[in-house]
Design brief:
- The protein has 6 helices and 8 strands, in the order E-E-E-H-E-E-H-E-H-H-H-E-H-E.
- By secondary structure, the protein is of the alpha/beta class.
- It binds adenosine-5'-diphosphate (ADP).
- Adenosine-5'-diphosphate (ADP) binds next to strand 1, strand 2 and helix 1.
C-alpha cells in the first residue's frame, strides 16, 4: 500500500471548544490510485492531507506510507522520509519569497536521493511543462496566483514522489492550465505513484 489510514481521529482544541475535524477515517491507496476527496468547506479535507503528509499528528489511529508508520518516526526521520517519499502542494503554496521560481523548485531536491535524477534538468523540464519558462527567474510576489500554484506543484514533483498530496491543485488555474496539471498528475499515477487531491 502507498498510503493507509486506520481509524484516524484528529480534533482541534481551543479556547472556544473542540472541533472534531477527522473522525474515524480508514482507507487505503495503492500503486497508481488517483483519488479526489470532495466535501463542503470545513469538512476536514485539508486536515486529512496534513495528517497524510506527516505534518500533523493524529490523536489516535495509524497512518502508514509504503508500510512505514509515519508517526512512529522521530520528527527528524519523518522529515527525511517526507523528502524521499511525499510531494505536498499546500493550499497557500508556501513558496520561499526570496527565491526565484527555478530556485524554489530546485530547493526541494532531496539530498539523500540515490542519484538517478539530475535535479536541474528535471526542474527545467517541469518549468517548461507547466508554462513557466518566461518566469523562471521571477520571485513569487511577481507571479499570478496560477503561476504560483504551478510552481508549488513543480516543486512537489521534483523528487518523483511515491505519493503526491495536493490541496485543490487546480483551484486557481484556467481551463488550459488545469488540463496540463491534471495530465501531469495522471502520468504520475500511471507511473505508479498514488495521487490524493
Ligand atoms: P476543509 O479543508 O475541508 O475546508 P479543514 O480541514 O481546513 O477543512 O477544517 C476542518 C475543521 O477544522 C474546520 O471546522 C476548521 O475550522 C477546523 N480547523 C482547521 N484547522 C484548525 C486549527 N489549526 N485550529 C483549530 N481549528 C481548525
Amino acid at each position: 500500500m502507498r498510503l493507509q489510514f486506520s481509524s484516524v481521529h484528529k480534533s482541534y482544541k481551543g479556547a472556544n471548544g473542540e472541533v472534531r475535524a477527522v473522525k474515524d477515517v480508514s482507507f487505503a491507496l495503492g500503486e497508481g490510485d488517483f483519488v479526489a476527496i470532495q466535501g463542503p468547506s470545513g469538512c476536514g479535507k485539508s486536515t486529512l492531507l496534513l495528517l497524510a503528509g506527516g505534518l500533523l499528528r493524529p490523536e489516535s489511529g495509524r497512518i502508514t506510507i509504503a508500510d512505514t508508520d509515519l508517526y512512529s518516526l522521530s520528527a527528524e526521520r519523518r522529515a527525511d522520509f517526507r523528502a524521499a517519499n511525499i510531494g505536498f502542494v499546500f493550499q497557500q503554496f508556501h513558496l520561499v519569497p526570496y527565491l526565484s521560481v527555478m530556485d524554489n523548485i530546485a530547493a526541494a531536491a532531496n539530498p539523500q536521493h540515490n542519484g538517478s535524477i539530475d535535479f536541474k534538468d528535471r526542474a527545467r523540464e517541469l518549468i517548461d511543462r507547466f508554462g513557466l519558462g518566461a518566469r523562471s527567474k521571477h520571485r513569487p510576489a511577481e507571479l499570478s496566483t496560477g503561476e504560483r500554484q504551478r510552481t508549488a506543484l513543480a516543486r512537489a514533483l521534483l523528487n518523483e514522489p511515491t505519493i503526491l498530496l495536493a490541496d485543490e491543485p487546480t483551484g486557481n488555474l484556467d481551463e488550459e492550465n488545469a488540463a496540463i496539471v491534471l495530465d501531469h498528475l495522471t502520468e504520475l499515477s500511471n507511473a505508479g505513484s498514488a495521487v490524493l487531491l
